[in-house]
Design a protein that fits this description.
- It is flat and about 45 Å long.
- It is about 75% helix and about 0% strand.
- It has 2 helices and no strands.
- It starts with a helix and ends with a helix.
- It has one domain.
């Protein structure tokens, strides 16, 4: 099976599983900021091995 076919099938599967997005951009941005802060905190707290 060639690469192009695999990509086409994957895109088709994604379309089948898609659902209407009800999250606003503002809410999305808020969650991204919170996640970024958590990542920053985690990195500061965890010494590099």
């Amino acid at each position: 099976m060639d690469h192009q076919t695999t990509i086409a099938q994957r895109q088709q599967q994604q379309r089948q599983h898609s659902f209407p997005c009800t999250v606003t951009d503002r809410e999305n941005q808020m969650h991204i900021e919170i996640l970024s802060e958590n990542v920053a905190l985690f990195r500061r707290r965890t010494p590099l091995a």
